[in-house]
Structures are given as C-alpha cells and as structure tokens.
Design goal:
The chain is α+β, with helices and mostly antiparallel strands. It has helices at residues 22-26, 56-59, 87-96, 110-120, 140-155, 168-176, 201-215, 227-235, 237-243, and strands at 10-12, 66-68, 133-137, 188-195, 222-225, 249-258. The chain has two domains: 7-75, Alpha-Beta Plaits (2-Layer Sandwich), CATH 3.30.70; 91-258, NADH Oxidase.
C-alpha cells in the first residue's frame, strides 16, 4: 500500500480512496480539505485541534480508506451484514423491555457487565465529550447498605416541605417490615457519574444509562431505574461518602440490575400515540 502518513490527523489508504468527498461533507465542523483528482482528504494542522474525534469521516467512508488517527490500533472492523435489525424485530425488542423488580440473587459475572458497559460507552454525548464514567456496586451486601442509607435519607424528609415528605412514611414502614422497596433485592447497582460543573453531562449520563438499559436484556440482564437511590446520592452526604467518587465528580443517576427471576412472554398496552405535526 502507498501513501500512508501516520503523523496525519486522518490516515488515508491511497490505494482504496476514490476521492468521493463523502468524508469532506460528513465532517461536522468542515475540517477536511476539499478533494480533487490530485488531492486526497487531509486535515490541516491548524484545524486539527477543533476535531471532536466523532469518527464520522472514518465510518461513513464507502471504501473504508480512511482512519481517524485516534487509537487506530483499536479499530474494529464491521463484519458484512451485521449491526442491522429489521424494523419488526427492533420494535418487538424495545416494546418487550420491562423494569425488573424480581431477581434470582445470582450475581452477574463482571465480564458480562463490562460487555454491556462497553456498548454504553458508544452513547451519544454533547460534542462527543464522553464525560460519563461508571461505578458498579457488585457486592450485594453493599447494595443493601446503600438501600439502608437511602431509607436514612428518607427519614430526614419527614415533616419537611420536600415533595416526597408525605410519601416516604409508607416506604420506611415497608423497609422496617423487611421489604426492600429501594433496590428490590437487586444484587447490583450501577451509577453513572459526571463532572460536577458540566451543564450538559447530566443528559449525556441519561443517554448512556439508556444504552445500558436497552442492551442489558440481550445479555439476559434485567434492569430497573433506581430513582430513590439516585435522589439520595445527589444530596445525602453519608451516601456520598459511601460511594466515594473521585474529586470533582457527582452522581447523575442510578440503575439496579441482576438476573431476572421471571421471563417475559408478552407486550402490555400503552396509551395511544399522540403526535403533533407542524
């Protein structure tokens, strides 16, 4: 092969490149120079710092002649006829997804959890900032401790103006009777955490958690958004100390997960679709 410049911002295989210009058009910031009969795609050094490493130039190249010079040794080839799901199958898959609140108690292997998280790291984020990092509570005893700390937080809401004040007595009472209304006996918890000062990272975290939530059933993992735990982790100092995040990071949201005790055999009804067109 000829014409490789490993110091360039984009690496172009000149034997494959047809100079079609798709990479030029697809670049979100217009950083790639126009191509013609004598010029292959390139990014000038002055423009390179503006690249957000989204990889569009690479993945939209019809001849797969271009590689963004960012960890190029880790490039994964997309096998032919993979990554495509029929509209019918994706519809059934997503409609079948349920919040799981009954678990077997058997732990999910760490290797399997990492597989799902590896998918979630491809979630969209503002400016491709990828600010989301993860805390996995794999120890089921620590999950129970976090649930208990969440109940402690709820006790602080009693007789206050907090919107949950009138609701928490029922949860506290159930907990005192031995019913886990917080984590539902889930063996694991997943926390997405983000930079404290980022105004857009909370949305990025929800998108990433949604990727985990959607991918998990394919690995026979059941999930449920842990709203009570998330609310406590955002404001209750004893729980924050227990989670012990790195300095400058904060919890965005939480999700409980584990092996589902029961299988899903159908799809429930939902409210009719309401759409406005303008």
């Amino acid at each position: 092969m000829t014409g490789f410049d490993i110091m360039a911002h984009i690496i172009v295989d000149q034997d494959r490149c047809t100079k079609c210009g798709v990479c030029v058009k697809i670049c979100s910031f217009g950083l790639i120079d126009q191509v013609d009969e004598t010029h292959f795609p390139q990014v000038q050094d002055i423009n390179a710092p503006h690249c957000m490493y989204c990889g569009h130039c690479e993945v939209f190249c019809p001849s797969q002649a271009l590689i963004l010079n960012f960890r190029p040794d880790e490039k994964v080839l997309l096998p032919a006829d993979t990554g495509t799901i029929s509209p019918e199958n994706i519809g059934f898959y997503l409609k079948k997804r349920r919040s799981i609140r009954h678990f077997t108690g058997e732990p999910v292997p760490k290797e399997k959890i990492l597989e799902v998280l590896d998918i979630a790291r491809y979630a969209a984020s503002g400016g491709n900032g990828q600010p989301v990092q993860w805390l996995v509570i794999h120890d089921s005893e620590k999950v129970k401790k976090i649930a208990g700390l969440t109940i402690e937080w709820m006790r602080t809401l009693l007789n206050t103006p907090h919107p949950m004040s009138s609701f928490v007595p029922m949860l506290i009472s159930a907990w005192e009777q031995g019913i886990d209304v917080i984590c539902r006996g889930a063996p694991h918890l997943l926390f997405a955490h983000i930079p404290e000062e980022s105004p857009i990272a909370p949305i990025d975290a929800i998108i990433a958690l949604t990727h985990f939530d959607i991918a998990a059933p394919a690995f026979e993992i059941g999930t449920c958004w842990a709203g009570f735990v998330a609310a406590a982790a955002m404001s209750y100092e004893p729980l924050q100390k227990e989670l012990n995040l790195p300095a400058g990071r904060k919890i965005a949201y939480a999700m409980m997960f584990g092996n589902p005790r029961y299988k899903i055999y159908g799809i429930p009804r939902r409210k009719p679709l309401e759409v406005m067109w303008q």
